[in-house]
Specification:
Layout lengths: L6 H9 L5 E5 L4 H12 L3 E5 L8 H10 L4 E3 L6 H10 L2 E6 L6 H6 L1 H21 L5 E6 L11 E2 L11 H19 L4 E7 L1 E3 L18 H9 L6 E4 L11 E2 L1 E3 H17 L4 E7 L5 E2 H12 L5 E4 L10 E2 L2 H7 L7 H16 L3
Parallel strand pairs: 1-2, 1-4, 2-3, 4-5, 5-7, 6-15, 7-12, 8-11, 9-14
Antiparallel strand pairs: 10-13
Helix pairs in contact: 2-3, 2-9, 4-6, 6-7, 8-12, 10-12
The chain binds uridine-5'-diphosphate.
């Protein structure tokens, strides 16, 4: 029973291949499902905790096709602490990766309580399990949104000061890191990591899993692929006169499979960590691309013409930001391998496969 493990015993069992279950909350979501695959490839046994409130059960079929077997699925709300406590008591869980959260900026402005309830309550609930089982390492999905609009230098490192985000969504990530900091302060043996994602795009090259937005997509890449597939008449590029290379906003777009691998490295690191920590790590490529560059790359790589127009700025958009990735390399030995060309190709192949386009 995990209650009686010290971290030494956990490490020993892990080394002997007896302790590999990793609880992945939100494991049926976009980043969660890709992380499930990479965990499996690395020899872990991913266990998905997802109630499908914001994902589709067909993801499990896609995962089964890639893994060759159905992954263990716990169809429960992450706030169901009684269930989680009982599960962890009965199983050897060697890590928790927490993805389960809402992520649409605009929706969070319209319905803030929905976001605070799901994102903050969900995090507190899962952290209670970590607090009660301090030998279990924990990885949190944070976001570069905690930097706000970078002043001066557009490349942000983990030392760049945080800014309180304007949207409730962004604030749940800012607050999430603070909650984890406070918990670590009270329990110095915990091994915790917050990964600050930049902009994940792309899909698994098998076309078995990818992004499945519910309703009209807010994010750039799914809007591009859906427009190319004929679901929308055109893409609107929000703003063309920003002080950037071509007037459109700049982001650090990272292939979702690279991002998924970073989670495996994060877990490996924490499992082997001798001391408690709350590490904070940027996960991006280190390169910025403008919206127009992404559109042009999509057209070129996939040999397809995209219908687009320029529209007004989107309120709240950061103008330009990209990651300094030195710390990810130093701490985790991780850096992104795939290119933006790979990502737009995989994203389009995924869109074509779900729309049965040849
Ligand atoms: N964007 C756009 N049209 C769209 C969706 C997004 O021009 O239909 C732009 C958006 O203004 C931003 C960039 O694409 O400059 C990335 O937006 P996304 O919502 O994907 O990510 P985030 O804003 O969270 O970085």
């Amino acid at each position: 029973m995990l209650f009686f493990h010290t971290s030494k015993i956990v490490e020993f069992l892990y080394l002997w291949g007896m302790l590999k279950k990793v609880l992945v909350t939100g494991g049926a979501g976009y980043i969660g499902s890709h992380t499930v695959v990479e965990l499996f490839n690395a020899g872990y046994e991913p266990v998905l905790l997802d109630d499908f409130r914001n994902s589709n059960e067909s993801v499990i079929d896609g995962l089964s096709n890639i893994l060759g077997d159905r992954p263990e699925l716990l169809k429960h709300d992450v706030c169901n602490t009684d269930y989680l406590r009982d599960y962890i008591r009965k199983h050897e869980v060697c890590g928790i990766i927490h993805f389960a959260a809402y992520k649409a900026v605009g929706e969070s402005v319209e319905n803030p309580l929905r976001y605070y309830q799901n994102n903050v309550e969900g995090l507190v609930s899962i952290l209670k399990m970590v607090s009660e089982n301090p030998e279990i390492p924990f990885v949190f999905s944070s976001s570069c949104t905690v930097y706000g609009e970078p002043q001066g230098q557009k490349e942000v490192s983990e030392k760049t000061p945080k800014t309180i985000p304007t949207s409730p969504y962004g604030f749940t990530k800012w607050l999430g890191e603070k909650i984890i900091d406070d918990l670590f302060f009270s329990q110095k043996k915990l091994r915790l990591m917050s990964l600050r994602y930049f902009n994940p795009i792309g899909a698994h090259s098998s076309t078995q899993i990818g992004e499945l937005p519910i309703g009209k997509p807010n994010n750039l890449l799914p809007f591009i692929t859906q427009t190319a597939a004929g679901l929308h008449e055109k893409l609107t590029i929000f703003g063309d006169s920003y002080p950037t290379i071509d007037g459109t906003c700049v982001r650090d777009y990272i292939h979702v499979v690279d991002l998924a691998e970073a989670h495996v490295k994060a877990l490996d690191y924490l499992i082997n960590a001798k001391d408690g920590c709350h590490e904070i790590v940027n996960i991006g490529t280190g390169n910025g691309s403008s919206v127009l560059q992404v559109v042009n790359t999509f057209e070129k790589v996939n040999d397809i013409k995209l219908n687009y127009e320029f529209g007004p700025n989107r309120p709240g958009d950061v103008i330009e930001i990209y990651a300094n990735v030195d710390y990810a390399k130093k701490l985790l030995g991780w850096s992104a391998k795939k290119t933006i060309n790979d990502a737009v190709k995989d994203a389009w192949n995924w869109e074509k496969s779900i729309r049965s386009i040849k």
